[in-house]
């Protein structure tokens, strides 16, 4: 090895590179140990079958490459005192991160029973991928992790999320070449068009061309060097290649490349600090190294190193197969653990000295346990943004439009702290959060024209037409201790169903780890919802995200359906203050009737569910009928139906129940927000018919209420997958949730009404025909539908 | 305009280009007409307010560019007699496709009431984006469409799916620059590494750099020309740029480019026919043209053409605002409809002559109504692949492994017809469909090494680590009249939740259009399911896809949970023969107990649900307890629980019910497979306790059965979001669905057992502790759990 001149003028000596190689060997040895050994962790005795785990689980293939990267990152962190975190795209390579955080000491600080000696090593090896132990991924249990990588595709989006508003942070993001084939990752390279070089941090992608997936080569490993280079130039990066398999040469190349890359990063940051806001071409590294590097070359005649056979556990049966046993023993010994660990079993001091110290260690960097850094938002008083109602049913300007003024001031109040961002797939205006653009812009580093609106080099809103990116960026932002809001069309939030799953799982597990601090909630505002996609039609209609959400742990998920602007304000305030939840808010954006004054809205949202006395006429008695609703459009149709019933059947006692917090419907034993049976019965009675107009698929209400006494009397209307381009009201008719169908449903369950019912039923049917004819002729709703006012 | 020499030596004259411009004007005129007019469609009278629609909906911005492309494609189709179809990525531009298919005559053939005259034009304009009319997208109602584009991101994947095994087909795929920001589209460019130049067709991507999304510029429009070029070179394409806004010049450029591109395509196809199988670098076109091209330049002082303001309806209020009225009138007149349509209102004959004829018209190409081309698969007799059981509970080799032999022969039998493919995200081996590789390979056009396995230039399996791609390719393949199977890990099928939504919606709507022929079903095999992700841990555990599926129309969705290999064979056979459904099959891949002989399995799967007499002891009487199960692991645990109960409580009458076809549980009024109440009650009784072990989230069973008489006695166990790296059995314990918990659940509901129950409960609790201790110590399950055999 040669001495390398670094950009600060100092040297990287051959001796240092040799030490780094030894450190790498230690990490690789630890990976094999984690996968195979339950005892004799340093081979102080001859390997015996009893030392080997009965079941061997873990992913070897990606691990040595990640260990290689980690040791080279350690060098530059230490040398330049960098604030750096590590994201492992191929998170299956848990042994790499577990091993490295152990070697640098953070693992033992987090889990004191895992001591820095032979006994600690033994415990660590055994607990890896073992029941009651730790997962084999870079899971929440692993210090330094804020990205598990169990599901592939989101490492780069998370990394950019972490970098936003952390100007001094470098996020080293290892992208696996398998992961690189996923859609979300393929578009995430474009995140560099949204990163401000002055105010945001740095993402240093390290594309690991490891060559193989589970059983196939990877696409990027099997195209020409020129194509790979063009691809990343096209994505707006400057790729540096480190390619080979000879460790000595590779250490040299990697160290040199790190120096070049860091010098470029420094120059870009300096230029930005000097006021040049041109979009920089950030450097990245392409590391082409063999899968299962340094592992066995052949097992049972099959090539292992540099082949997909190295993906998981390369030597299958070291207990039962004597050849395998010898292969394993030789493999372990090839790292010469006796040269790496001292008598106690602690990493040699000269190797320990290679790692950074304190919170510069990537396993201890506080950004990776974001709750440590989380500061509450300054919250303006949401009540001041409320609508003053002159009467019930007064038309508001659009619920999200009103809330936009509140969110605008959340943006404003926290502008200096730089810890709140809004993400959306080109829909922040469409979702009517227009007011935020009074105080901020969309952050955009691409070229601009003077006809553009609300685009600037920096801004609190980031928009890209990729729900994956919006979700991934926001998750990365939250995971590193900040706050945010994702606004999205309701139907297309399903695009991130699987990302939501993973984030909910992360929250569930971190909730159970005392050393993990709580994060700000993931807040999702679904405007442009199913009932008002009348102009976009059937493809834009799907309210099923909340079905998906409620499958996750009750301790994590919250769903809100505010019926009007004041309620949405109250809910938004609550969600932005909350911690460690996923909050889903569904709200309308169009001018629509308003029901509650601010004080009433606060009371109603605090309870989450309640009787609307002013709409009911069962005061002080038992109702004949409960009309329940959840969601803005269902509330409107329910109140219209109630007014028809009350006018036509004045003796009928009707109770109106509105649900804001959907989880109230579940039993209190199932969800912390759930009502007790007594409270539920007090609202819904034990035996009266309940007509429930629901925002989403009707079955969800049944699913949540099936244990309740009165469940058999629940009749739920909701979206049942009928829709096209039509009018707003016709959408409710197609799905039989309109006022006339609701009245018909009620009448069917009120035998005591006799002739009144027959007359009214005919009237409702006539109305439906009248409405249909008018729409067919005019393409719009009848004025008395469109401008209907509550006047009971 | 100059005369252009074409690659076949003929000329494109200035006269031809002028005519093409006139045709383009006609299409643009029709687009404005569709958005605005309900009468006076050819402005034969002065425009009046009464001619204008009350509500104006539609997307103008993308439309003129798509019209431009369509007219140029028409020219080359006609000239070279091409078999070409058109995929509209920005499918919101419905006016383009509706207009063009009308101009070429296919629209009137599909909808005879829409005649080729003024009256037909009037009807067409009025029905566009009008209640009871047609959607504003390239929806199923539009002839020539097999990709609606309502949700963005899948145009290119669908196009490649269409091209597979259609060697003479060219799929012209317009990719919007908004859509191009999505993850799925960003990775879909790599599809060229999977397209065989000899046996498959051609995809000609036309990236439309239209510049803007709803309210933002697009990323690809705001990076340098060099970056765009590098990006597509890196993706392995040869990009040709057509850039500008002056129509005369643009026609010339586009025609020239089409000639170059088609010559290259021809050369590639010829080379492949001659045996050169090197991966070709296919040409593509980048069309940079102004959004809202030829539309109004300014409205209310805001720029419209070449700005995001052109996205939808550029002139907002032509009825109420006199200036807007004049702008609209001038805009319409700018196309000179009087020069384009004859007295009757029919497109001038010389323009009509520009379009191809018959099924060469892109609106009439049979590939776009795939059912027209669909041929049934040759199906081997699945019974011949069944396992012969020597006893109940015999360990099989893995249910998907067995089915793999059947699928292998489906592949083999249909090899020559080239109409069956298997798609998977690098998991076909992991999901144990190994046998298929005895007869075919993975199709892979990237570089290969001699250590690779089952990779070849052609093969019936296609694998890329992108669930989006697998799903999109398969959808495209099915939509153009072929058959296929998608195999996937259960947890990660959520990645395509939203794609499933769109396909289910497509199937629902086409079901209702008599001229649309039925397609082969979308078959999804979910192996590597929640209960056997014990080695990958929590991130890999989510059985909620079926919750998502059952929200869609009952006429479309089917869910199967075969308990063993013979049942899976029967289900697979049924699914592969079926039409126009989405079939979800959930099955295990690990060696596991087998329950039914082939004949029994066929009978059981044909009924879809049934009593297992051999496991029950209530023959001829009423049971005290029903033990129900759905899914392989729940069936095992249920039978183990039943055997414990029968041994310890011999007088207890137990009925075992197994569910294969989940939809049987729904009321027959809700789903065509649903049982009548009488049949349901005959299985589950009206009043006996039912302990139901379910594969997925338990609430789904409640949702499906809440209307049944005995519902209140249903106690359902399933996955409740508890998991980590552990053993297979411990996964069931963590979720309280193991045999011991099931016995405890039963005993809680059997008060008549008295002391027997108390004794047995203690025994079950002891067993749970024993099991836990053993696992904690050994990391594997106790032998009597692992090797448990049915022996009642």
TrEMBL record, chains A, B:
Domain Xylulose 5-phosphate/Fructose 6-phosphate phosphoketolase N-terminal: 12-372
Keywords of the record: Lyase, Thiamine pyrophosphate
Domain Xylulose 5-phosphate/Fructose 6-phosphate phosphoketolase C-terminal: 589-790
Keyword Lyase on entry: yes
GO MF annotations, alphabetized: aldehyde-lyase activity
Protein EC: 4.1.2.-
Cofactor(s) this protein cannot do without: thiamine diphosphate
Residue ranges of coiled coil: none
Gene Ontology biological process: carbohydrate metabolic process
N-terminal signal peptide: none
Pfam families: XFP, XFP_C, XFP_N
Family assignment from sequence similarity: Belongs to the XFP family.
Name of the protein in question: Probable phosphoketolase
Organism encoding this protein: Rhizosphaericola mali
């Amino acid at each position: 090895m040669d001495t390398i001149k670094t950009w600060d003028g100092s040297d990287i000596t051959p001796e240092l590179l040799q030490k780094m190689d030894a450190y790498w060997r230690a990490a690789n040895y630890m990976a094999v140990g984690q996968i195979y050994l339950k005892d004799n962790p340093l081979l102080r005795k001859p390997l015996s079958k009893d030392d080997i785990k009965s079941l061997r689980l873990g992913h070897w293939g990606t691990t040595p490459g990640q260990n290689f990267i980690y040791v080279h990152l350690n060098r530059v962190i230490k040398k330049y005192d960098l604030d750096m975190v590590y994201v492992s795209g191929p998170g299956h390579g848990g042994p790499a991160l577990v091993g490295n955080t152990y070697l640098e000491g953070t693992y033992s600080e987090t889990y004191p029973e895992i001591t820095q000696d032979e006994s600690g090593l033994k415990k660590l090896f055994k607990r890896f991928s073992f029941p009651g132990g730790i997962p084999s991924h870079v899971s929440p249990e692993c210090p330094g992790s804020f990205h598990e990588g169990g599901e592939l595709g989101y490492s780069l989006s998370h990394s950019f999320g972490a970098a936003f508003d952390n100007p001094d942070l470098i996020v080293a993001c290892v992208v696996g070449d398998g992961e690189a084939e996923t859609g979300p990752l393929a578009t995430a390279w474009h995140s560099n068009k949204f990163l401000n070089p002055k105010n945001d941090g740095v993402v240093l992608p390290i594309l690991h061309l490891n060559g193989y997936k589970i059983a196939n080569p990877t696409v990027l490993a099997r195209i020409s060097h020129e194509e790979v280079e063009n691809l990343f130039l096209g994505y707006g990066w400057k790729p540096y290649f480190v390619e080979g398999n000879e460790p000595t040469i590779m250490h040299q190349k990697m160290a040199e490349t790190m120096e070049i890359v860091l010098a470029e990063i420094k120059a870009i940051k300096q230029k930005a600090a000097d006021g040049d806001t041109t979009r920089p071409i950030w450097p990245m590294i392409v590391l082409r190294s063999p899968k299962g590097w340094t592992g066995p070359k052949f097992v049972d005649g099959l090539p292992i190193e540099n082949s997909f056979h190295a993906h998981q556990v390369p030597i299958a049966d070291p207990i039962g197969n004597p050849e395998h046993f010898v292969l394993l023993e030789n493999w372990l010994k090839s790292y010469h653990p006796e040269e790496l660990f001292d008598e106690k079993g602690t990493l040699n001091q000269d190797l320990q000295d290679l790692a950074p110290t304190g919170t510069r260690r990537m396993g201890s960097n506080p950004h990776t346990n974001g709750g440590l850094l989380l500061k509450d938002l300054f919250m303006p008083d949401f009540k001041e943004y409320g609508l003053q109602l002159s009467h019930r049913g007064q038309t508001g300007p659009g619920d999200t439009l009103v809330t936009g003024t509140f969110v605008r001031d959340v943006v404003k109040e926290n502008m200096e702290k730089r810890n709140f961002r809004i993400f959306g797939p080109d829909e922040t205006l469409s979702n009517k959060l227009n007011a935020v653009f009074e105080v901020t812009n969309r952050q955009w580093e691409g070229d601009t024209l003077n006809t553009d609106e609300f685009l600037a080099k920096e801004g609190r809103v980031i928009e890209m037409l990729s729900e994956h990116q919006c979700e991934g960026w926001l998750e990365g932002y939250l995971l590193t201790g900040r706050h945010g809001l994702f606004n999205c069309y309701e139907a297309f939030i399903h695009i991130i169903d699987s990302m939501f799953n993973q984030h909910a799982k992360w929250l569930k597990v971190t909730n159970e780890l005392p050393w993990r601090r709580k994060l700000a909630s993931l807040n999702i505002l679904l405007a442009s919802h199913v009932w008002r996609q009348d102009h976009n039609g059937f493809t834009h209609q799907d309210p099923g995200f909340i079905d998906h959400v409620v499958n996750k742990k009750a301790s994590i998920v919250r769903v809100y359906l505010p019926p009007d602007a004041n309620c949405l304000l109250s809910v938004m305030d609550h969600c932005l203050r909350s911690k460690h939840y996923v909050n889903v808010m569904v709200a309308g954006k169009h001018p629509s009737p308003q029901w509650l004054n601010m004080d009433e809205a606060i009371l109603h949202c605090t309870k989450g569910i309640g009787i609307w006395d002013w709409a009911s006429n069962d005061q002080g008695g038992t109702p004949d009928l409960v009309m329940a609703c959840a969601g803005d459009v269902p509330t409107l149709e329910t109140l219209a139906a109630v007014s028809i019933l009350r006018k036509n059947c004045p003796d009928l006692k009707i109770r109106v129940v509105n649900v804001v917090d959907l989880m109230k419907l579940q039993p209190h034993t199932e969800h912390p927000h759930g009502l007790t049976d007594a409270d539920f019965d007090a609202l819904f009675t034990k035996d009266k018919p309940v007509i429930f107009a629901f925002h989403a698929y009707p079955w969800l209400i049944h699913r949540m209420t099936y244990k309740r006494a009165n469940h058999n009397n629940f009749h739920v209307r909701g979206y049942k997958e009928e829709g096209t381009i039509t009018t707003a009201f016709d959408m409710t008719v197609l799905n039989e949730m309109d006022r006339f169908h609701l009245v018909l449903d009620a009448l069917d369950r009120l035998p005591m009404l006799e002739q009144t019912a027959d007359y009214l039923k005919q009237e409702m049917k006539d109305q439906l025909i009248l409405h249909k004819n008018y729409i067919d002729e005019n393409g719009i709703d009848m004025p008395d539908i469109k401008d209907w006012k509550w006047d009971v």
